[in-house]
Design goal:
Strand 7 and strand 8 form a beta hairpin. This protein has a 4-stranded antiparallel β-sheet. A 4-stranded mixed β-sheet has the order 7-8-10-11, with no helix packed on it. The two termini are 30 Å apart. The protein has 275 residues and is α+β, with helices and mostly antiparallel strands. The longest helix has 20 residues. It is built from 4 helices and 13 strands. It has 3 domains: 69 residues, no CATH class; 111 residues, Dna Ligase, domain 1, CATH 3.30.1490; 59 residues, no CATH class. Helix content is 22%, strand content 28%.
Length: 275
């Protein structure tokens, strides 16, 4: 029973007999060049749903977050700090020089926080959330290219807002008062690209290292292959097992796995219900 698919009436009825709920939690992080970033959360959700069905328990939506700082060395995991200051005010009443100093201070704060754990190349970007005086929503305005050497960059920022508003909504109102709601600075550490993994040298196909008896609707003998000994371009057909120090892969009848040039497995699954 999935909580998000129930009405409050159904939840109330459930609570009359049970107070328990299953909360699946899984990190969002890299899992190698062929693994899904959401692997942990997906596994937690599948297991939770299975347990929930068996126990008749409610299953909450998956919380797909986690602390994974040991993965920051992988592309897509750049360190990033965002600094924001809210409720700046009507641009006509703002001091452009003070606003420039504010952005400079925010950028310095971001650099200092990032440098505490990162000594590589750093990039900073500035932006502002702005609106016309009577609007109830803000427009995100990138400030790339603004001349911050000017004593007062505010007129250029306001002009950027008018142009951005016109890009999004086909019109602008230069005669209307403009409000700067949030000033934002993002400071990101840029990670170097990882070196290309070398291809495996050519080798003849390897033979199974053993055989396991496994149950797939009935007992069968399945050859077991050592993952680290597989040759590039070698294809295995199920039923078979690929075993390594960190994982065990089952190939069901009709499924296959081909070793790539880099030593990974491209697995072809049998569609559910196919014989």
């Amino acid at each position: 029973m999935q909580l998000q698919l129930k009405t409050w009436v159904e939840v109330e009825a459930y609570l009359e007999s049970s107070r328990g709920i299953i909360l699946p939690i899984g990190s969002t992080e890299q899992h190698g060049p062929t693994g899904l970033i959401g692997t942990d959360a997906i596994c937690a959700e599948v297991i939770a749903r299975g347990v929930g069905e068996g126990a008749g328990a409610l299953v909450a939506p998956t919380v797909a977050v986690g602390m994974a700082q040991h993965h920051l060395g992988f592309p897509g995991s750049d360190l990033r700090f965002e600094i924001a200051r809210s409720h700046i005010g009507d641009t006509r009443a703002l001091d452009g020089g003070a606003l420039k100093c504010l952005f400079d201070e925010m950028e310095a704060e971001g650099f200092a926080r990032l440098r505490a754990s990162f000594d590589g190349q750093v990039r900073a970007t500035r932006s502002a959330d702005m609106r016309y005086g009577e609007q109830v929503f803000e427009v995100a305005v990138p400030l790339d290219g603004v001349d911050w050497t000017k004593a007062d960059p505010l007129p250029e920022i306001v002009e950027r807002f008018h142009r951005r508003h016109e890009e999004l909504y086909t019109y602008s109102l230069p005669d209307q008062e403009t409000v700067l709601v949030n000033a934002r600075v993002a400071v990101a550490g840029m990670l170097a690209s990882l070196p290309q993994e070398p291809a495996l040298p050519p080798a003849p196909p390897t033979t199974p290292c053993s055989e396991w008896r496994i149950y797939l609707d009935h007992w069968v003998g399945a050859p077991v292959y050592d993952f680290d000994a597989l040759a590039p371009a070698q294809t295995l057909w199920g039923p078979a097992i690929v075993d390594s120090a960190t994982t065990t892969i089952l190939l069901r009848p009709g499924e296959s796995a081909t070793v790539t040039a880099l030593g990974w497995l491209d697995i072809t699954l049998t569609p559910r219900g196919a014989s």
